[in-house]
Write a structure and sequence with these properties.
- Helix content is 31%, strand content 17%.
- The chain is α/β, with parallel strands linked by helices.
- The protein has two domains: 30-92, Orthogonal Bundle (DNA polymerase, domain 1); 97-318, TIM Barrel (Alpha-Beta Barrel), CATH 3.20.20.70.
- The strands form three sheets. It has a nine-stranded mixed sheet, with helices on one face. A two-stranded parallel sheet has the order 2-3. Strands 8-9 form a two-stranded antiparallel ribbon.
- Helix 1 packs across helix 2 (51-66), helix 4 (162-176) packs across helix 5 (208-219) and helix 6 (239-248) runs parallel beside helix 8.
- The longest helix has 16 residues, at 51-66.
Length: 319
Amino acid sequence: MTEPTEPTAPITQDVLTVARKDAPEGAGKLNLVGLTRDQLRDVLIAAGTPEKQAKMRVGQIWQWIYQKGVRDFGEMTNLAKDYRAKLDEAFEIRVPELVTRQLSDDGTRKYLVRIAGGHEVEIVYIPETDRGTLCVSSQVGCTLTCSFCHTGTQKLVRNLTAGEIVGQIMLARDDLDDWTRAGEGMGERPRLVSNIVLMGMGEPLYNFDAVRDAMKIAMDGEGISLSRRRITLSTSGVVPEIARAGEEIGCMLAISFHATTNETRDKLVPINKRWNIEELLDALKAYPKLSNSERITFEYVMLDGVNDSDDDARRLVKL
């Protein structure tokens, strides 16, 4: 028998509550956060940027937003002053609004953030000796009703936009002072947010396009610049989208598994009634990024008397 571990530090040691803003600054302007490079190019041209200059301008603005964390066009000093003014007239750079931040003794941070429509989602930052993992949300609520998951008790309100997803990463980097500073090169300081897990509120594969675009932005080498191996998407088993995730996102994959028989998994993870264990495993075997160095993670919450028998253990090993 292993020795009991020390209890996890509570996450309510230090609570910061931020007063609600009446309306976001720049209301009515187009938010650039979450636009793909092609989308950014299109809106810049529509706002008057000469087409021949558009690719260069996209690269410059991209680095200011996603590498340096700048939110004020006036600070983009490699752009002409009159061009910065035009950008400010048409666009904004906005991330979700921080509502509360809870800080644990071990450095874990839990954020409650507000997005458009007054809806709120959670983000969690978990520091470790060799990495800093940020858990982000992809939906407000969830269509799935997994019996052990709190989000499963909340009805789906809506999908998050790509901007609201990547904006969670940006907000955490703000709080952690994790942006490249003036005069610094990328990588000169250890990165605090080094890993992303899509394990927050919602089923990521039911919001595929926005999740894909947000993760492509996070992986872009001229911005946030996270390796695809440092991004993990957790799914309950939306079988038709698994191969697509490998092809279009290319990140690591985790499966919210939790049972070794269809009878038990039907109860714990009801999506199993639509795509059972056998269909799920077939899809995983064909996952495009599967290799000895890039393995799929199986998540398994042990529930006393439900899925923790010796037979469950033996079946899990065989799987």
